[in-house]
Amino acid sequence: MISVQEALDIIKENAVKRRTELRLVTESLNYVVAKDLFSPIDMPPFPQSAMDGYAIQLSDTTAFHQLVGESAAGNLTKNLELKTGEAVRIFTGAAVPKGANAVIMQEQVLVSGNQISFTKQPSVGQNIRPQGEQITKAELAYRKDLKITAASIGYLAGLGITEVLVHKKPVINIVVTGNELVKPSIDLPYGKIYESNSVMLNAVLQSYGYEVNIIEHVKDNYQQTVDLIKASLTSSDVLLLSGGISVGDYDFVSKALAELDVEQLFYKVKQKPGKPLFFGKTKDKLVFALPGNPAAALTCFYMYVLVALDLLSGNQNSGLSNTTTLLKADFEVRGVRDLLLKGVTDFKTTEILGMQSSAMLRSFSEANCIVYLTQNSGLIKAGTEVPTYLF
Ligand code: AMP
Ligand code: MG
Predict the structure, then answer these.
(1) pLDDT score for 348
(2) Is pLDDT at 76 greater than 80 in this prediction?
């Protein structure tokens, strides 16, 4: 059995980004940029008014300016050129006419007929966004290794960039195992349970920007397990299995993976929940066999699978963000496994919830963090700083 840290190290060694693809910027949210992007234009593309007001050519001696035209956003009177003593009515976002070197906000202007004067002495350049103020043509616009956010989509779109080379995200398949699992829509036969891991994993993947390709359910039958895993491997980069990885008579996943030449990179981690976690690879495909118990499966997803997916997708920061918070109440850690505990945090203090059983999702469904406590810590007093993983 290996430690949590050793398991993470093995995952990090094996989850290496690979392929890139060209995507529309509008369809690249959460992708990581694989190649520097350069601006095709100056931004703003022309000297732009930052206010509704009046554009003037500023000279110390002129108190009154003659109104000679108008420049509204997107609609500059062509070839308009200001001379000393002239002014143009202008609006936010509009092009500042040639010859103008200041925009006076309308609140500081007195208009009398065709003449304007100011209630406050203007200064050169005021309320004008110079051409290329944000970025100039051919300048580095967006660095590789950065993730595309809503802001970056807006920013790149504003520069007229429509395509971006990104790291591909892995194709993910899910296979759940178990004779006891039934679809939620039917009456529950005695001895059966509703299948929940596939929908939960699908949802958590979605929430981190990943998509599931195919979800399959296999009965606890050795040959079927082999066949389905084999088929699922051919159409995925990452295969997530749930259940059947323990040592019961009907747990066939280990054996099936061995038959399919999936190299075991680790099996069993010194942690609670999620001890029977398997991680392996075959060619360039990664396989996680998650415990069937739902809370264990989700904990392993957050702590390990997400790290692998993020790294495969080119992220520098992988997995949940983590911080330290103060325990709200005393907590006793007995035993030789590290604990991954469901908690609720306000980002300063954290309450460890009840119902920590790996079979239960009830408290997990209200949690917003996992508290990581190391084995044999004994009594941890309220107010102690503890590592806290946020989701
Ligand atoms: P296993 O790892 O297959 O021994 O399963 C451990 C526990 O998790 C058993 O109580 C299973 O019934 C339950 N379990 C396994 N797979 C699922 C699933 N997909 N949805 C809900 N519970 C499951
Ligand atoms: Mg099972």
Answers:
(1) 98
(2) no
Name the pLDDT band for 56 (thresholds 50, 70, 90).
Answer: very high
Q: Which two tokens stand for residue 163?
A: 């395509």
42-55: average pLDDT: 97
Task: Give the strand pairing for 349-352 and 338-345.
Answer: antiparallel
Q: How far is the C-alpha of 88 from the C-alpha of 97, rounded, in Å?
A: 8
Confidence tier at 63 by pLDDT (50, 70, 90)? confident
Alpha carbon of 125 to ligand 1 centroid (Å): 68
CA of 292 to the centre of ligand 1 (A): 4
Q: Which residues of 20-41 are buried (b: 16+ CB within 10 A; e: fewer)?
A: beebebeebeebbbbeebebeb
- Stated as kind and residue range, the H or E segment containing 369 is strand 369-373
Query: Model confidence over 164-206: pLDDT tens digits?
Result: 999 999 999 999 999 999 998 779 999 999 999 999 999 999 9
Nearest CA to ligand 1 atom 3: 243
d(CA 154, CA 161): 10
- Could you tell me if 178 and 220 are in contact, meaning their C-beta atoms sit under 8 angstroms apart? yes
- Asked whether 299 and 356 are in contact (CB, 8 A), the reply is no
**Could you tell me how many helices (H) and strands (E) the chain has, helices first?**
7, 29
Cis peptide bond prior to 273, omega within 30° of 0? yes
Does the C-beta of 274 come closer than 6 Å to ligand 1? no
Contacts of 227 (CB under 8 A, 6+ apart): none
Kindly report the pTM of this predicted structure: 0.94
Does the Cβ of 276 fall within 6 Å of ligand 1?
no
Taken in order of first residue, the domains within the chain and their CATH numbers are: 4-18+169-312 (3.40.980.10), 20-36+143-167 (no CATH), 48-129 (2.170.190.11), 321-390 (2.40.340.10)
